Amino acid sequence: MLDQRYRWKNKQIREHVAVLDGNLAPTMVLKNARFLHSTLRKWISGHIWIYQDRIVYTGDKLPENLAGCEVVDCSGQWLVPGYVEPHVHPFQLYNPQSFALYAAQTGTTTLINDNLMLVLLSDKKKAFSLVQRFRHFPVTMYWWARFDGQTELANEEMIFSHESVKSWLEHDAVLQGGELTGWPKLADGDDLILHWIQEAKRMRKKIEGHFPGASEKTLAKMMLFGADCDHEAMTGKEVLNRLMQGYTISLRYSSIRPDLPALLDEIKTLGIDQYDQMFFTSDGSSPAFYEQGVLDRMIKIAMKHGVPPVDAYLMASYNVARYYNIQHLHGMIATGRVASINFLESETNPVPVSVLSKGIWMKKDGKAVEQEEPIDWESFGHGPLQLEWDLEYDDLQFSMPFGIEMSNSVITKPYSITYDVSYDVLPDDYEDNFLMLMDKKGKWRINTLIKGFAKGLMGLASSYSSTGDILCIGKSKSDMMLAFKRMKELGGGIVIAEKGEIVHEIPLPVGGIMSDQNMEDLIGQMKKFAEVLKKRGYHYDDPMYSLLFLCATHLPYIRITSKGMYDVMKKTILFPTIMR
């Protein structure tokens, strides 16, 4: 658990009160501030006193005791609460620390994070130690408790055991259960998942859905089971359907589902002009997508599509805090709240010129303020990938009667293989590549072909996948082996090889899944990777998600998993994995 049960100790609260009495000086005063009051829903003028990480007063008075206090004149600026991102997957090549520091520069100072990779890549003790480490981070970090691995895992009952899930749900830093990517199991009678939902409800925690394309009846069933929110609405009608069933809606603008502009236009056409039950999410987008911002970008889009500025700011802050019952800490500039504040040049420009997070300057007058030494990931069980085995030529045997065809970045369907694939290098006119998924411990493999990924790709190896197992894709077996060898040397990563040479690589030394570089550098690497793939025939939106979701069984129609080739709709293994 956290190293202290309460947000502030009794001694600290007494100090906060002492500031009001004039016995202690505030650490910072924001004078002449024009700030958004989240419950009055209007701009208020006054002064804001801060002591360390907490707002201790907002109003007309200035403190008499200013000894050692930093006084900031906010004349001409507009102050809004720090933005809250409710649905973060902090392992999309970036890591939780690098993404949080980057997001804070654009005003997103509170993140509610997926715990999937913490569960898959380390034991519970180390995972909880990392969560505790983030408690002292300048950006506020909350977490989810996953109920499934969004794929078919050979040992899922051990990874997502009752004891493990219950421990996560009970953790003070965990605000919700889910997301419910395994909801079909729940609908089919899985009472263990239902029990976990019941436990989350007993603890007054939320349940996040994952219901793409769900019918009105399915949405109603999931609400009865205990779901509270869903981020999978792709049309205005789907937003309305969810609102009618009592859901809170997370409007999405992500690298594979940039739906927000259309959603806002369509709900307006449907006569929806109330936004209290809505907020924003970027849903764990790929690094390059964030080059133009995080929630600040979504606020700007909302204003452009007719959302009043006050509503847009509340959708990125107070609405989220109220939903998760943390409005006593976040989403408001008011007495008692955590001192996370964005300073804007105008009411209609949500990109902050300065950012306070927990009373610490993350950005000041347009310049980033250096924060935090890099985390020693290895000490938390997320060191470089150690592969104690090699890819052998005998592993590269492909005799599957059907393969996987890509329909878009993430949707795959089966197709029959009716031609000769017994080559070391597939012919240029074939649209196919060899495709392998291998156990990171070297115990099993599944081999097939993939059509439509990148016709001219010779060899790619990736330790980045939804399970942390190894993907190899390409036309040339020798280049696939070379890419694998280099990926192993890096301690994990994504490597492209061609004609016996390494063309591009992204090292991922944090568990083989995440980079240890800052976001700016990673964005450059990712853009180069996308460029290299597109030159070789990749023509979809997001290659990172294409790799991630090849194993993910929460999307149709066919996937490769640790159990074998899996038919998502029929929930059956078509061909089992082969032991090496």
From TrEMBL:
Pfam families reported in the protein's UniProt record? Adenine_deam_C, Amidohydro_1
| Swiss-Prot/TrEMBL keywords | Hydrolase
Give residue ranges for domain Amidohydrolase-related: 79-359
Enzyme Commission number(s) from the entry: 3.5.4.2
Q: Which GO terms describe its molecular function?
A: adenine deaminase activity
Q: Where is the Adenine deaminase C-terminal domain?
A: 410-571
Q: Which family does it belong to?
A: Belongs to the metallo-dependent hydrolases superfamily. Adenine deaminase family.
The protein's name in its UniProt record: adenine deaminase
